[in-house]
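Protein Record: Sequence and Backbone Structure Tokens
======================================================
Scope: a single protein chain, as residues and as a discrete description of its fold.
Tokens: labelled as protein backbone structure tokens, with as many entries as the chain has residues.
Position: the record begins directly beneath this header, with no further notes in between.
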Amino acid sequence: MERVIAYLRVSTRQQQRSGLGVDAIQRFAAAESLATSAEFVEFASGKGVDALDMRPQLTAALAVAKASKCSVVVAKLERLSRDVAFVAGLMAQRVLFMVA
């Protein structure tokens, strides 16, 4: 079973209370036979190319994923970032991520 790192970002208190993305990631992991080995949750905006500076949990999730050679999974691409340049940068650096 392939292992993944779950990353959940919420940008409003309402999203934080709703557990935005947890169910989507769990369903995706079950359907794809993935095992979540760690979970990182952050309350932060998804705007800006300096997301790694502003989001320590994302930085940690990416570091753990790299060290354990597994992907980071997010419920929606916008939970990773709303900035196309940031996402493109991750892809150019061959950072593995999946979108549920």
